[in-house]
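COMPLEX REQUEST
Ligand: flavin-adenine dinucleotide
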Amino acid sequence: MRKFDIVVIGAGISGLSVAKKAAKLGFSVCLIEKSKVGGKFLWSETFPSAFFSEAAKKFEEIKSNRSIGLNSKLDFDFDFFLKKMNKSVVKVYEKNSPDELSRLGIKVVFGFPKFINKNVVELNNENIYAKKFVLATGSKNYIPNIEGLDSVKFLDFKSFFSLKKLPKSICIVGGGIKGVELSFALSVFGCQVALLEQNSRILYGFDRDVSDFVNELLEKKGVKIFNDVLIKKVSHASGKNIVEAVTDKKKVLVKSDHVFFAMGDLACVEGLNLPAAGIRFDEGGIKINKRCRTNVKKIFACGSVAGSRDVSCSIHQADILLSNILHIPKYFNFENVVQKISIDPEIAVLGKVEKDFSSKVVDSVKVYFKDIDACSYKCCNSGFLKVILKKSKIVGVVLVCREASVLINNYLFALGKNFSVLRKLSFPVPSLAEINSFILEKFEKKSRLKNFFIKVSGRF
Ligand SMILES: Cc1cc2nc3c(=O)[nH]c(=O)nc-3n(C[C@H](O)[C@H](O)[C@H](O)COP(=O)(O)OP(=O)(O)OC[C@H]3O[C@@H](n4cnc5c(N)ncnc54)[C@H](O)[C@@H]3O)c2cc1C
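STATUS: Structure written out below.
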């Protein structure tokens, strides 16, 4: 029986982070992968879709430059794009290939492992023992059980990037981050998009002002959005896919070249025989505590199989997990991780959103980019900065503007502190960062007013 300090199952971004860091720390590490090293991050989701969203954002940005006299004829060559993207994917893969990993001392093995008990997995008719196991098997696209689904060839991110040309029309089911990003990018490139959302608004996990902003933006691009939708049936006729649905008001019938499901993910746990090791899991994934430990002390989990929403969260979990394996107690906290929506303008969120609180508990201050001088030459005058406060302490930030995911990083240091900490920052002028002085001014005005009322009410 082969023995290792740490056996990591799943070589996506989460498993790779753990395996590489653990090897550097001197542990003997075995990395087990059922398919290709790189996971969804590299081959089907994060990297390819980030490439696609970036192309759409650039397209929009260049188009907006016309407002300052930069005229150019724009064209998107999907075939060229795919070749370039695939080359970049291979470059990233080469840095993480089994050979490169072996050079770091990691034993990479391919196959489907199965727990025999909490200490041992069976793989390719061999038993492997580990002092610690890390489960990083990721998640897969959730496909609902809808009448007629087997008669329709639907798309997911993997098959989307195997298309030879961009669709002329598409019905995207799911108005979360992924559905919204894809709707935006495809509409920018001239595709007719219908976006179907089961909740009363798209981006339901975000504050209403973010949903409303994106709703308006997408509708301006020609995206037809249907909320409160319940899909009844899908079918195929005369070369088109037909989605039949109902909303509270009416029947919806969408005919399009393609149907795309972006309704979220399901954890990949099948075949692992988790009950043999006594590991607790359900539809939402493997249950872990803040130290990334499962209910079985020696077994950890991280990444999308354990509820991480994106790569930054997965990498954060990988660090936390290793620290705990080293008996240095650390706890993960996704509030310090920026969440972004890759559209133009970009949306970035840090900490808590207003939706997380009752309105009595928090207060928020909001300023708009259209009021900033730099907007005229930056060619983007929509978007806003909203800072959420609890007793004058900054608990959340929502930023909607170009490069929002970069600009918001100023607030990483301000999170949890009194808003007056913003006085310490200085910003180049003119630049979009000026928005920070606007918000500080608004805070101070608000708190002066509050103090005044406290004083006045004290007199009576
Ligand atoms: C369209 C899209 C865009 C995204 N864009 C972003 C973005 O811009 N930024 C961001 O931060 N996040 C993004 N995400 C989220 C990100 O893709 C995931 O959070 C991340 O890929 C999760 O990594 P992971 O390693 O946990 O899982 P995965 O990447 O799924 O890796 C799991 C690995 O485990 C292997 N595996 C599964 N089961 C077994 C088994 N039984 N035995 C052995 N191996 C197994 C799989 O083959 C795979 O290689 C996006 C997601 C989607 C859907």
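REMARKS: The first strand starts at residue 2 and ends at 9. The two ends are 82 Å apart (CA to CA).
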